[in-house]
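FAQ

Q: What does a record look like?
A: Structure on top, sequence underneath. For example:
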């Protein structure tokens, strides 16, 4: 298993970027936003993995609802997989509940699919094809 990135929900993206770059010496690699998912994001290199900071653009979005309910904090972990179709099929065969039935393009520009947290010990888990 290889951790691709860790997603953290924040209410102030610029403040969070300052925190991670100053406190931990993380390097900001890129920023992205997705109007459909209603969020903006920043990616920071953390060794072989990344930290993905997520700020909702609106309250009525998945990350907006997460922040309202739980406050800022760990949102998801992402696992690198070589073949997303196979990873989804394997997850289904193991009885895991997929949120995304089909791969979609994630903020990294690669194909992703989310597994429901109730299938993975309460942790929202993202498969990322690499
Ligand atoms: Co992610």
């Amino acid at each position: 298993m290889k951790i691709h990135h860790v997603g953290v929900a924040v209410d102030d993206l610029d403040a969070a970027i300052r925190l991670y770059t100053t406190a931990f010496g993380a390097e900001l690699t890129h920023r992205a936003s997705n109007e459909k998912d209603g969020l903006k994001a920043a990616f920071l290199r953390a060794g072989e993995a990344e930290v993905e900071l997520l700020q909702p653009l609106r309250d009525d979005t998945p990350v907006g609802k997460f922040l309202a309910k739980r406050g800022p904090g760990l949102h998801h972990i992402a696992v690198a997989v070589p073949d997303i179709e196979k990873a989804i099929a394997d997850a289904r065969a193991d009885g895991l509940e997929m949120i995304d039935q089909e791969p979609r393009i994630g903020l990294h520009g690669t194909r992703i699919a989310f597994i429901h947290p109730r299938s993975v010990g309460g942790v929202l888990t993202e498969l990322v094809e690499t």
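Q: Is there anything notable about this one?
A: The radius of gyration is 14 Å.
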